[in-house]
Amino acid sequence: MSTTLSILAGLLALGALAMTPSVQKQLLYFPNEPSRALRATPADAGLAYEEARIATSDGETLHAWYIPADTARGVVLMFHGNAGNIGDRVGFARLFHDLGLDTLLVDYRGYGQSTGTPSEAGTYRDAEAAWRYLVETRQLPPARILLHGRSLGGAVAAYLATTVSAAGLVLDSTFTSVPDIAEALYPWLPTQWFVRIRYPTLERLRTLDTPVLVLHARGDEIVPYAHGQRLAEAAGATLVTLDGSHNTSNEDSVAIYREAMQTFADRVLPASAMQPAAQARRR
Fold first, then answer.
1. Whole-angstrom Cα distance, residue 15 to residue 189?
2. Strand, helix or coil for residue 272
3. Which residue spans within 47-159 are E strands per DSSP?
4. Dihedral angle, C-alpha 115, 120, 121, 127, nearest 10 °
5. In the prediction, which pLDDT does 158 show?
6. Over the stretch 29-42, which tens digit does the pLDDT of each residue have?
7. Hey, how many other C-beta atoms are within 10 angstroms of the C-beta on 20?
8. Contact between 94 and 78 (Cβ < 8 Å)
9. pLDDT lower than 50: segments of the chain
């Protein structure tokens, strides 16, 4: 065997090892970065909130915060990215609160104070449990619920949108699929064969009737801007271009983000506030 072929064979073997299911999870889910500790609560942003413990269909318990807004006309169910926890997303709750929207921030299994270990199927069950909490426990009408996902959370939210009747779906810095991201990172490997974690966001949008808003930074160095373009095209949705990078776009584009969310909420949510019966569950 030639030296070149030996090197190629070694790279392929290394790549195959790296793509085993257990290692794939380690490459995608980072619940301990920077820490599972909650670095902030909504109170640090001047927001009242309720703690919630949400049971999943397979026996895990998710930690969540419900953050009410005055005379809210809807609620945002937010799914965060693959690192950190809800303590790192308080700024989003502040933004949604200022737009007159309640927020449910929920940690996936294995993140923050939630039990369990993350997986693709697990995050889907987590999303379903969060939805049931809003619709069954808090008795909120589906027509008042906006699904919002950032990065990995967009893929989770897209899955949920195919199983429920939400008012709308917001995809922030979201990828078309995990294999597509892997292909960009390892163009010399047949990653479509090795990657077992799929999150096929693009595929799901092609059959989705729910209104969609896509936000993506042109300078995103982790999930290329082209992913946002493809998602918007598949959904027949508006693509709002943000400034900054993957991890800073929401902070670098506060005014753009706020305007896009306001316009989308005006389009898909009823203008009136939610009924007092739903509001009365807040403490």
1. 7
2. coil
3. 50-55, 61-67, 74-79, 101-106, 145-150
4. 70
5. 98
6. 999 988 899 999 99
7. 12
8. no
9. 1-14, 17, 276-283
